[in-house]
Amino acid sequence: MNEYIKKLEALDKDDSVELISNGSEEHAIELIKMLLTNAKKNVNIISSKLSLYGNLAVIEALKIALENGVVIKLLLDNYKNSDINKENMFLKTCKEHKNCTVKTYSQQLKAHIITRDGKAFRYCEKLGSNTAVASFNYPSAVKNADEKVFGEDGIFSNAPSFS
Questions:
Q1: CATH code for the domain in which residue 52 is found
Q2: Is 133 in contact with 19 (CB distance < 8 Å)?
Q3: Residue 163 forms part of a structural domain
């Protein structure tokens, strides 16, 4: 795991365009932590269950991002069929902070995505799987998700707030 973390740190520091696979829960958590901790402006997240986000290290990374003034947008998709734990600490921490907005969407979106600062992302198309790809510098991929879902006329802007 240390080698994987060192590789992620180097790729993030170098603003690398290299695609990274992360095929385990541990890899996914390390990548999500890094995306949150090193955010400068914004992080956008689409998730149904927040299963990877209940990890204490991920919650600490969220707190760091929020303390640094990062704006977080979280869209809980497939919400009408969701069995999301409303006591999830990531969700509670996010809801309690002014820089974080949580909304719901009744339909299942194609994938689970986290984007950072308009260029870094983690994309998991196979729901219920930790098999995903990521990059620290792939603005065209991030732009597509950010505009369609989180943009001014995107799903997020019209979605109801989480209660």
A1: 3.30.870.10
A2: yes
A3: no
In a domain, 120, yes or no: yes
Q: What is the DSSP string of 46-109?
A: EESS-GGGGSHHHHHHHHHHHHTT-EEEEEE-SGGG----TT-HHHHHHHTSTTEEEEE-SSPP
Structure tokens at 24: 């385990």
Residue 65 falls within a domain, yes or no?
yes
Residue 138 domain-assigned (yes or no)? yes
Which domain range does residue 96 map to? 2-158
User: Do 101 and 161 touch, CB atoms closer than 8 A?
Assistant: yes
Domains held by the chain: number: 1
Distance CA 163, CA 1 (A): 37
Please report the pLDDT score of residue 130 as a whole number.
60
What the block records as the tokens of 33 is 């932590």
Residue 127 confidence (pLDDT): 61
What tens-digit pLDDT sequence spans the chain (163 residues)?
899 999 999 999 999 999 998 878 899 999 999 999 999 999 999 988 888 898 999 999 999 999 999 999 999 988 766 666 777 899 999 999 999 999 998 888 878 899 999 999 999 876 656 678 999 999 998 998 899 999 989 999 999 998 7
DSSP 16: -
